[in-house]
Design goal:
Number of domains: 1
Shape: globular
CATH architecture: Orthogonal Bundle
Order of helices and strands: HHHHHHHHH
CATH topology: Hypothetical protein af1432
Number of strands: 0
CATH superfamily: Hypothetical protein af1432
Radius of gyration: 15 Å
């Protein structure tokens, strides 16, 4: 299945929640751009983009089950949900495992060990920072402590006016 078909499926899954849809599109756009600028290979780029599209798959469930979308709840629930969501896409088990890992860790900033993981974290932060008006202090702290890619740092600076 193509990225476009997975995007269409996720938009449908979002059941008209425009905030969730806008957010997943923004995170995907930033992840796609950063991944391409950082010269990820085709396989890593594909997995990154699928993870970006599905990273918040658990948000509707978390709102219903827990009354919020706490990052830890998203990670726990999302890692399982994304497996079922991707089962009919033709993706390999290895690809689905990696997407599940990324979705299950996209709010965990310790032990980031790969480019796809790093870029997903950066793309989600950029989207959240711009959507929620994060303070300059918060952004500077994230840039110093978490950001690793030149492309992600540059885009964060552009988007947030730093």
């Amino acid at each position: 299945m193509t990225i476009s078909k997975i995007m269409e499926k996720m938009i449908s899954f979002s059941n008209g929640n425009i905030h969730d849809i806008d957010h997943l599109i923004r995170v995907w756009s930033y992840a796609k751009t950063i991944g391409e600028l950082e010269n990820l290979d085709q396989e890593k780029q594909f997995v990154l983009e699928v993870a970006a599209i599905t990273h918040d798959i658990a948000c509707p469930l978390c709102r219903e089950k827990y009354g919020n979308t706490n990052g830890k709840y998203q990670e726990e629930e999302g890692a399982l949900m994304v497996r079922d969501f991707l089962a009919d896409t033709g993706m390999s088990e290895e690809q689905i495992d990696r997407v599940s890992f990324l979705v299950g860790h996209h709010h965990t900033f310790k032990y980031i060990d790969s480019a796809d993981y790093q870029i997903l974290v950066e793309a989600d932060y950029i989207a959240n920072a711009s959507e929620n008006g994060y303070s300059k202090e918060n952004i500077a702290n994230f840039m110093e402590r978490i950001m690793q890619t030149k492309s992600g740092t540059h885009i964060l600076r552009l988007v947030c006016g730093i």
